[in-house]
Amino acid sequence: DSGVTQTPKHLITATGQRVTLRCSPRSGDLSVYWYQQSLDQGLQFLIQYYNGEERAKGNILERFSAQQFPDLHSELNLSSLELGDSALYFCASKLGGEGDTQYFGPGTRLTVL
Amino acid sequence: GQNIDQPTEMTATEGAIVQINCTYQTSGFNGLFWYQQHAGEAPTFLSYNVLDGLEEKGRFSSFLSRSKGYSYLLLKELQMKDSASYLCAASLGGYNKLIFGAGTRLAVHP
Fold this sequence. Notes:
The complex is a heterodimer of chains A (113) and B (110). The relative contact order of chain A is 0.34. Chain A is 0% helix and 50% strand. In chain A, a hairpin with a 5-residue loop joins β7 and β8. In chain A, the strands form two sheets. In chain A, strands 2, 4, 5, 6, 9, 10 and 11 form a seven-stranded mixed beta sheet that branches. Chain A is built from no helices and eleven strands. Chain B has 110 residues and is mostly beta strands. Chain B has no helices and eleven strands. In chain B, strands 2, 4, 5, 9, 10 and 11 form a six-stranded mixed beta sheet that branches. In chain B, strands 1-3-8-7-6 form a five-stranded antiparallel beta sheet, with no helix packed on it. Chain B is globular.
C-alpha cells in the first residue's frame, strides 16, 4: 500500500459523458501527478500540481482538466468522453524535492461504452 | 523530443539472472527511475539513479551511464513473482516530471 488513494476503482460510462476521478496523496506530500495508461501502452504523463498550483503539463487533452484543492487532494475531470479515453488513470504523489520518488495510487479503470 | 526505449518482452528461467536495458534521449535529465508493474496494478518503485554507476538493492541492481544515455535493471535469483512489466522512466526538468518507456514485459518460467 503506497498511501495514495484513488476513487472510484472502476467507472463505466457512455460516450459524451463527464466523469471526475479523485486522488488523495500520501500524508505530507505536496505534489500530485496524473497519468493515463491505455491497453498495452506505457504511462503517459498528463499534468502535475504542487501545493495547489499547476506546475507541468504533458499530453493532456483540452477535454480534460484537473485541480488540486487546499487539503491537497486532486481531481481529474474528463468530459465529452470518447471510446479512446478508456484506460487506467493513475495518480502519484511525492513530497516535492528533486530526488523524491513518486508513489502511485491503485488507479481508476475507466471504461467508455 | 523525448524518447525512451526498452525491449518489449523478455523471458527468463526461475533462478537465473536477467538484464533489462533502457536507452533515453531527453533534455533536462535529472535521473532515471525503475518501476515494477503487475498487470492492472499500480507501478511500484524499485530504484532511482542520479549518478553514474551501479546501485544494488537486494536481488535488484540498477546501472546508469549519463554520457551514453543508458541504464539497465539487473534481476538476480529470479522468482515466478518477478513476472511483471518493468518500466524505465526519466525524471526531467525543474518539476521532475516522469517520462516513461513503454515497459518490458518479463515472463519467468520454471
